[in-house]
Design a protein that fits this description.
By secondary structure, this protein is an alpha+beta fold. It is 34% helix and 32% strand. It contains 5 helices and 7 strands. Pfam families: Acetyltransf_1. This is N-acetyltransferase.
Length: 177
């Protein structure tokens, strides 16, 4: 089987999952680029373009700094997930965990990086809450299957959005991590 040079680089490079240390302009621009690429062909789920993405990603950063994780391949950010341990769910009538955003640059998909991000997010949330919710576009079948493989269940729909939840076995850990 022939590998593209980029594929070889990904498999050889050490993929690191880390908390985003700061949201500077350069990082924000890279996250916007990933966000916009992630929603190509599904614009109805990705907002109204780059200015929306900038506002939304800043909101995510301000809402869930401690749970804003990035995947890095070498020095390049390949994707990110925003895990909020303090989300008031009107559907649950209480505070739960939430995944506000989860995007992997298309050129890095298919290498297990998304799985590493999701596992880190669920580990983080399991130390802080017993349930997590997310919303996913109804036509985003690949993402829905991905979430179902992690034990998320469809529990409702609002317009084009499907609500999914997962119960976690809460781990007693260091909540100040």
């Amino acid at each position: 089987m022939l590998f593209k040079p980029h594929d070889e680089l990904i498999s050889m490079a050490k993929v690191k999952i880390e908390r985003l240390p700061k949201l500077d302009q350069e990082t924000l621009e890279r996250l916007i680029e990933i966000y916009m690429r992630g929603y190509e062909g599904m614009r109805e789920y990705g907002g109204e373009g780059e200015s929306y993405a900038k506002r939304y990603l800043r909101w995510c950063w301000n809402k869930a700094k401690d749970g804003f994780f990035i995947a890095k391949v070498g020095d390049e950010i390949a994707g990110f997930i925003v895990c909020d341990a303090d989300w008031y769910s009107k559907y649950e009538g209480r505070t739960v965990g939430a995944i506000h955003e989860f995007v992997l640059d298309k050129k890095f998909q298919g290498h297990g990086i998304g799985h590493k991000l999701m596992e880190r997010c669920l580990e983080y949330l399991a130390e802080r809450t017993d349930r997590v919710e997310l919303w996913v576009g109804e036509k985003n079948e690949g993402a829905i299957r991905f979430y179902e493989n992690y034990g998320f269940k469809k529990v409702g729909q609002s317009g084009i959005w499907v609500r999914m939840v997962k119960d976690l076995k809460r781990k007693e850990g260091n909540a100040s991590e």
